[in-house]
């Protein structure tokens, strides 16, 4: 499987690297690391092994980042469902 190309601007990259180093939220740290590794050209399977995630979960994180940017990394699926329910 070919790597998914994730483009990360310099400022975004610095913020993501800061999250990996400083956040106490393990899930957020992992999602930021997934994006950094994808931006470095790693394949989905390699990233999944490195962070102990299923490859489909890695793809979901990447797609959410591509659609929503850094904000998408901060919201997990449970929070997104609750937010959608409140908007109705």
Protein traits:
88 residues; mainly alpha; 6 helices; 0% strand; globular; disordered C terminus
Number of domains: 1
- What is the number of E strands? 0
- Main β sheet profile: none
Q: List the total number of helices.
A: 6
Mean pLDDT: 86
Question: Compute the gyration radius: what is it?
Answer: 13 Å
Q: In terms of structural class, how would the helical and strand content be classed? A: mainly alpha
Instruction: Tell me the series of helices and strands, N- to C-terminal.
Output: HHHHHH
Write up this protein.
The protein is mainly α and 88 residues long. The protein has one domain (10-87). The protein has six helices and no strands. The protein has helices spanning 10-22, 26-39, 44-51, 55-68, 70-74, 77-87. It is globular and about 30 Å long. The termini are far apart. 18% of the residues are buried.
What would a concise description of this structure say?
With 88 residues, the protein is an all-alpha fold. It has helices at 10-22, 26-39, 44-51, 55-68, 70-74, 77-87.
SSE blueprint:
Elements: H1 10-22, H2 26-39, H3 44-51, H4 55-68, H5 70-74, H6 77-87
Helix pairs in contact: 1-2, 2-3, 2-4, 3-4
